[in-house]
Amino acid sequence: MSTDLVLLALLMGAVTYPSRALPMLAPGIERLPARALLYLRLVGPAVLASIAASETLVRGTAAEGYGIVIGVDILGVLACLAIVAWRRNLFLGLVAGVALVALLRLAGIG
Amino acid sequence: MPADLRVARRQLLIDSAGIAVSAIGFALVFGLAARNAGYSLLEASAMSVFGFAGAAQFAAVGYVAQGLPWAPIVILTFFLNARHALYSASLAPRLRHVPFLQRAAMAHVLTDEAFALAATHFHRLGRVDVPGYWIGAVLGVFIPWNLATIAGYLLGSAIPDPSALGLDIVFPAAMAGLAVGLMTGRREVAAAGSGAAIGVLLSLAVGPGVGIVAGGLIGPLVGMAVPVPANPEPAGRTESTAGALRSGESADAELAGAASPARADATGMTGAHHEGLNPLPSVPLGRFDIDEALDEADADAAADRDPDPGPAAKPRELP
Q1: What's the average pLDDT block by block, 10 residues per block, for chain B (319 residues)?
Q2: Alpha carbons B199 and A53: distance in angstroms, whole number
């Protein structure tokens, strides 16, 4: 069994870990100014919304360029959002969104 | 176990189940792709254990299959995963009391999903729950991702295409749903809306790798610029803040004022139960106290949600 790429995996982990760990391990976080703490509090909703919107709307590659694609997956995400906002239940929202998209694709839409 | 913790963990487990389904779907595909690219099972598993970063792992599979050298793969991995620094920084103030070594271990399993689950769980609970972090990050993501990598490798082409089952929407839908859980005031809504808009615009212009990070960096600045209506100070806060302002020390007054619900809402989680835990918090002088800031921010966010906070949160009438 080949093990050559295990070293690559370790290298990938080694370059990923600092991003994950350094801010969390940095001393003196409790002495940050209130404005900085407010900023950090707002990172959560901002980055999650950024991921959701980009992953849902933007398609393409660096070589071919990027564009907005409107597909049935948007309906699935919106259905999930509506249910989460209404019922405060992520799992239910995900089930509904996935079911909607699967049904639409089964019907040949999207 | 306190009732609120039990309820929050139950909800966390339910949320984690949805995330796990997404992780399983895509790790199955990763295992298959790694096998087709010539990885051994050990190498595929090592990618999921040590790298543990979906986009970078898929990119690496493509590059390895094309015979590219390792250096660009490692550099690309760094940039693809740089956004994790945002998650780490966002969680850091809450985890400051967690032992160093445990934080170091927590960092390894900090992914998009783990951050989303943890941030929402802490927010819902109103305080940090370290076992809850591990539940989301390890039970919800790490274990499913690694087991499904092995399964995908072994099952090969027998596994179904996740997109045919609609599973490709689970990740963005889960991120959107968990973001909704964090939107407790107009600042959070502004940060999320602008983060999404900036993320899409820059993803179109430069690519999602840059767009997502830019949305996460700039969105909070927009949120901070949104004015929060002056709320009546909750009971017990008036005297401490006024006392701080009377101290005559500008730095202390600034720090105390920063912790006042009317002037600033530093990092914080909502949680109505919090209001009952610290009926008469004092604002320490000479040092910004993050616990106070968290409590004050809770009250601020609650008041932001509900213009009429009810008699319990109405200001005490001073003689």
Answers
A1: 88 92 87 90 96 88 85 87 90 92 96 94 92 96 96 84 83 88 90 96 91 92 88 42 32 34 36 29 33 50 47 34
A2: 7
Residue A68 in contact with residue A58, Cβ under 8 Å? Answer: yes
pLDDT value, residue B114 = 95
Looking at residue B287, what DSSP letter applies?
S
Cα B83-B37-A73 angle, rounded to 5 deg: 50
Judging contacts by C-beta atoms under 8 Å, the chain B residues touching residue A48 are: 116, 119, 175-176, 178-179, 182, 192, 195
- Contact yes or no for B215 and A53 at CB 8 A: yes
Find, among B253, B276, B265, the residue nearest to B303 by Cα: B265
Strand-pairing partners, residue A66, are: A60
- Helices marked H in B156-278 — which ranges? 170-182, 186-205, 208-225, 237-245, 250-258, 272-277
Contact B81 A40 (CB under 8 A): no
* Whether the predicted model's global pTM rises above the 0.80 cut: no
- Nearest-CB residue to B220 (from A25, A46, A88): A46
Q: Which residue has the tokens 């995996």?
A: A9
pLDDT at B315: 33
Cα B51–Cα B52–Cα B58 angle in degrees, nearest 5? 80
- Tell me which chain B residues have a C-beta less than 8 angstroms from the C-beta of A80: 169, 173-174, 176-177
* Residue-wise burial string across B197-226, b where 16 or more C-beta atoms lie within 10 A, e elsewhere: bbbbbbbbeebbbbbbbbbbbbbbbbbbee
Q: Which helix (H) or strand (E) holds B305?
A: helix B290-305
- φ and ψ of A67, to 5 deg: -150, 165
Q: How far apart are CA A73 and CA B174, in angstroms?
A: 13
Per the CB < 8 Å rule, is B89 touching A35? no
Distance from CA of B115 to the nearest CA of A (A): 8
Judged by DSSP in three states, A83 sits in: helix
